[in-house]
Specification:
Blueprint lengths: L2 H4 L11 E6 L13 H11 L9 E5 L18 H20 L3 E6 L5 H11 L5 E6 L20 H6 L13 H11 L13 E4 L6 H10 L2 E3 L1 H7 L1 H11 L5 E7 L21 H11 L5 E7 L10 H19 L1
Parallel strand pairs: 1-2, 1-3, 3-8, 4-5, 4-7, 5-6, 7-8
Length: 329
């Protein structure tokens, strides 16, 4: 299919106020290059001759990627001090954006800052119940006590849930790391930010037994790729929103590794048997029509792993279609 044909711009006098928040951070990932993902999406827009990024205000959140060149102090929560700094910055940006009456579109490097986005939403509206649609191959429910890698992009939902999962503990964690971990969980002086029943996983298929224990313990809703295929996108969207019907607001986090590894080469942790491009695009477009959606995030595009910039092109097509739906709703 001609990607240029699929790319289009809308110019409406009654545009919904949208702000793009650029988080070019990759200190939570294990593979280098995700910090370049935001610019890769912008390049894709230029290749499509799109004015998309001219139409909206944007903010670039200062990153801490200089820490990549320094020794790792916390092996079970790598660069946690820098991640905490990013949480402060991103949560403040998201909170201020919402308080200003703007809709935040977050374009992030690695997924570790997804927990910061959640924090910012709660800081803006602490009394409102927040639901999370986590479209990702991975559960991101690890903690410093359970992590197999120490990479913090595997921990944002545990942070938001105020979850240590010490029942599955495999590491003895040093006091300094514990101190920063507690600070992360209490960003905005709200903890937990979300409850397990307020999460829906879509396309989850690669997780460890420690994360599975939490999913089963809390009966967290998981919609596998096979279920998307069997029931169809519209039925899955209805099911997802019904599961979160009790929530006041809903945040969507879209990790591009939710896509099948055959098309998601430009991400650090590709996984087979994922969503097809059309499935992901239709799924997100349908979800974005719901009035409870308060924030949308795309994360983990890594152009250093993708010579043709295909992953960024797919991400841009999804981004543009979702934003166009926001503009007309």
């Amino acid at each position: 299919m001609d990607r240029l044909w699929r790319s289009f711009d809308l110019y409406l006098p009654s545009m919904r106020n949208i702000k793009i928040i650029e988080v070019k951070s990759e200190i939570g990932a294990g593979t280098r290059g995700a910090s370049l993902g935001v610019d890769a999406i912008k390049v894709a827009a230029l290749d499509f001759m799109s004015n998309f990024f001219v139409n909206f205000s944007s903010e670039v959140v200062e990153a801490e990627n200089n820490l990549l060149y320094e020794p790792i102090e916390s092996p079970y929560a790598k660069r946690i001090k820098g991640v905490y700094t990013m949480y402060e910055r991103v949560s403040t940006s998201v909170s201020n954006t919402l308080k200003s009456g703007l809709f935040p579109i977050v374009l992030a490097g690695d997924h570790s800052t997804g927990g910061a986005t959640i924090s910012g939403i709660k800081m803006a509206n602490p009394k409102r119940k927040l639901g999370v649609i986590w479209i990702d191959a991975h559960a991101d429910l690890h903690t410093p006590y359970t992590t197999p890698s120490g990479n913090m992009h595997g921990m944002p939902l545990a942070i938001a849930l105020n979850e240590d999962n010490k029942a599955c503990k495999v590491h003895e964690v040093d006091d300094k790391t514990v101190d920063y971990w507690e600070k992360l969980k209490n960003i905005g002086k709200i903890s937990p930010k979300i409850n397990p029943e307020d999460i829906v996983f879509i396309a989850l298929r690669d997780f460890e037994k420690e994360e599975e224990t939490l999913i089963k313990k809390h009966n967290i809703k998981v919609i596998p790729v096979a279920e998307v295929r069997r029931k169809g996108v519209e039925q899955v969207v209805r099911q997802t929103l019904l599961n979160l019907n009790h929530c006041d607001d809903i945040y969507i986090s879209f990790d591009v590794d939710s896509l099948d590894s055959g098309i998601s080469r430009g991400t650090g942790t590709p996984v087979p048997n994922g969503l097809r491009e059309k499935e992901a695009e239709d799924l997100l477009a349908s979800l974005m029509q719901n009035h409870k959606i308060c924030c949308f995030e795309i994360t983990e595009v890594n152009p250093t792993l993708d010579k043709e910039n295909l992953m960024a092109e797919i991400a841009f097509n999804i981004l543009q279609r979702c934003v166009n739906i926001l503009l007309v709703n």
